[in-house]
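Contributing: when you submit paired examples, paste them exactly as shown. First protein:
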Amino acid sequence: MTDMQNDLYLRVLRGEKVERTPIWVMRQAGRYLPEYRATRKQAGDFLTLCKTPELACEVTMQPIDRFGLDAAILFSDILTIPDAMGLELVLEEGVGPVFNKPIRSQADINALGVPDPERELAYVMNAVRVIKAELNGRVPLIGFTGSPWTLASYMVEGSGSKEFRRIKGLMFESPAAAHQLLSVVTESVIQYLKAQVSAGAQSLMVFDTWGGMLSTEKYQAFSLAYMAQVVSAIKSDPACENVPIVLFTKGGGQWLEMMADTGCDGLGLDWTVDMAKAKQRVGDRVVLQGNMDPVVMNTGRAQVAEQAEQVLSCYGRHSKNDKGHIFNLGHGIQPFAKPDNMQALVETVQGQSAQYHD
């Protein structure tokens, strides 16, 4: 039991019966909100915003205050761990995240260490504490990380990529080196997530942004195996006993059964996945999260309501034979989304989903 004012999100992940479908949105604190843009301008740049706990709390709370969503997610970035490892993250305008010191050799891999979350990443843990206090039980707080494969991809490429020539080259040419890199990143991810729980996170999410560009064989060996290690480490730690963990592989709809085998509590679905078929495949084993196309949020209120209702209908009635559904977009909300459409989305899900629950 919990003394939270709104614990729908956690109850679904615990497999409990709920009266309606909870909703939160990936990147719900972001550039589509004018109040976010004002706070970011005050901070001066994105990384300063992330590294200032009070400002990270302010933008985390903005969508909660404005829209009444059912969960808050820590405002941070997936690349905090590589930055703490000494790769020197910078955000270049018009380019995105870039590392000044990317992984370029075996010696670079050998030199990597696991950062102490309460030292090198103290600003993240402090942000969790500040946000948790500010929420004061209104809704749960989600902590998160990038997946080991996604983090390693950025670390080796040095930035985002379309071809992933360097990381795939490492995977094919020097698999032992790739596994060595992934092992140290995985241990870093585990310690990072455990520290977030210790600081107050009540649920965890792993964003595997780049797993979908692998073949099935390579996905199993270089992405999923390491996410499974993360899940196992969280589940076996008594301090994280009641903290659910959700995995999301963008472009990973063909691997849902394998992802569920990790023992995670939920799976995020992108918009290319048929929700009804996903429910048939794994719905009795894990909660499903998703999966409206984010571009709909740049259309009109009528289209948003229509597409939200379609996702709810596609999941269908909640029965004792399935774990449940958390409404979300199929990926992060985009900067051009209209705030009024977010309001329409929340109102539709919170108002229309009760009919699918007994």
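Second protein:
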Amino acid sequence: MKKHLLFAAIFAFIYTDTLSQIGFERGYFIDESNEKFECLIRNRDWNRNPNEFLYKLTNDDPVQKAVIQTVKEFGVPGSFRYIRATIDIDKSGDLTSTISTVREPLFQEVTVFLKVLVEGKAPLFMFSEKNLTRFLFKTRNSEIEQLVYKRYMANNYDAATGLLSEKRVSVNLDFKNQLYGNFKNHGITVADIQDVNYQQRDLERFFMKVNGDMGQVYQNNGKKDLFNLSLRPGVNFHNLTLTHNRFESMNTDFGLNMNFRFGVEFEFILPFNKNKWGLIIEPTYRYYFPEAPSAKNFISKVNHESIEVPAGIRHYLFLNDNSKLFVNACFGYDFTNSSDLTLFFKNDGRTFDSWQIITGTYLAAGAGFKYKNRYSMEARYNTGRDILTLHKYWFSSYNTFFVTFGYTLF
């Protein structure tokens, strides 16, 4: 029951924060009559092209919703800009399960907010939705046009026999021809095109070269640091209870034991939603060597060392420029070697029986605080698990709570 309440509290925290914590930034929008409104826009750092956004005309005004049908353009200067456009987009799937058998793009007309990546005489745009990213461009003499890139299944012929063998995945790279055909008079050579991949960074570099001094790349200042490596020493609080199916007198409670742990955390910040989400993995060395009386004549001793590897997702709540709270939800595996629980005779120390410890998988939930992106502290709870699964007469419940102190190297 406790663990369910803990996870429910974490998800409630994330849900509330997602709705309320992303701040409003000073921006603008242009309506159907080309009137420009200065306002405060909730910058959600969209991973996919939005169809609407929330804004306030002033700090004291109520939040309003603007939709694509009534807005031609909106943005936050220096951060992002979206323009409404009716365009032809090829939505052919790139995944093997949805891949097309036709080389040519299958265009469909859509009205969307395009994200402006590069400003200038030849701007670059991006359209993104689930499992699909398309780049588009415009010149002074043309409308917005998609750069064509398409994976498709093509016939594969055996060179020796000339017979059709199995189909293979091919790629239509017509975007390279589009780039050369449109910009060869701008000092662009075939060599400039060869190394351009259908990726945001490559295309941004290319269009900055085309635009020269007039070019401007929109960059989110919050996306510079997308990987963190931290040292994570801490203190474990263990509790283990043993229950015997036949002899209640053998039941054992090891009580609360404390010892040290040391881990290294790898954190990958996801490049959307204002850097509020991250993926974490934290290999950690820990040990547990308690003992406790069992019945009248026995002593139980645990000899357990392991490398614990939790992996999961982290969500941040920014308090100010230097401080932020975070919550984690993790799935972990405990790698152990030669760990056992042994039952000794109390009077002479002889071994009565010994059982191998199998720790396996677990869930974990935690919350913490980070200061100046350098110092952190976290409390985390690992769900209870049975470590004597190989013994039919014993049931165990092993719970761990710990506090870690982090120092981020970079």
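If you have annotations for the second protein, write them as plain sentences, like these:
The mean pLDDT is 86.
Residues 87-219 form one domain.
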